[in-house]
Amino acid sequence: MLVAGLDGVGDRNAAEALKGLRLYVARSELPEADEDEFYHADLLGLKVVMVEGGAEVGTVRAIIPAGATEVLEIDRGPGEYTLLVPFTRAVVPEIDIKAGWLSIDPPGETEEERDTVSGDEVSDGERPNEAENEAEEDNGKKD
User: Fold this and answer.
1) Is the separation of the CB atoms in 25 and 35 below 8 Å?
2) Which of 29, 85, 104, 115 is packed most tightly, with the most Cβ within 10 A?
3) CB 60 within 8 A of CB 45
4) Among residues of the chain, what percentage have pLDDT more than 70?
């Protein structure tokens, strides 16, 4: 439980009157983040690159709370799928806030999951629209 006090708020009734009010703290008032600690605002918009090869993947769009581990939502650009990766040291081994990037080494199932559309499995290397095209071609051959 977090208990906080505010100047000018002397009792419970005064505090309840503030319910739903958004409180902001100037960045200069925040303590420096420790090593391996980051403010969400510092991660948003960072360029994301692969550990192996350094290929650019996209940018951090959001940090999603998911129980014990947060998840990074990576925007891959218009028309591309969104990549979700656990925000762990194993998956995100290097972060350079000042340089504006972080590296990822996504688990194998991350790439495999994108091949699943509405619960239908798609064979290895086959994109969802390729599967639809082949099904249409097969249907056309039977007529």
Assistant:
1) no
2) 104
3) yes
4) 74
Q: What are 89-116's pLDDT values in tens digits?
A: 999 999 999 999 999 998 876 554 444 3
- Give the chain's end-to-end CA distance (angstroms, integer): 68
The beta strand positions in 1-143, using DSSP E, are: 47-50, 56-64, 71-75, 83-86, 94-96, 101-104
56-64 and 94-96 beta bridge pairing: unpaired
Burial class of residue 128 in the structure, from the number of CB atoms within 10 Å of its CB (0-12 exposed, 13-18 middle, 19+ buried): middle
Q: Which of 107, 89, 87 is nearest to 43 (CA)?
A: 87
pTM for this entry: 0.64
DSSP state of 82: P
Task: For residues 133 and 131, give the distance between their C-alpha atoms in angstroms, rounded to a whole number.
Answer: 5
Tokens of 114: 């994108």
Tell me the average confidence (pLDDT) per consecutive run of 10 residues in the chain, 143 residues long: 79 90 88 89 96 94 94 95 94 95 85 42 42 48 47
Angstrom distance (rounded) from CA 71 to CA 135: 35
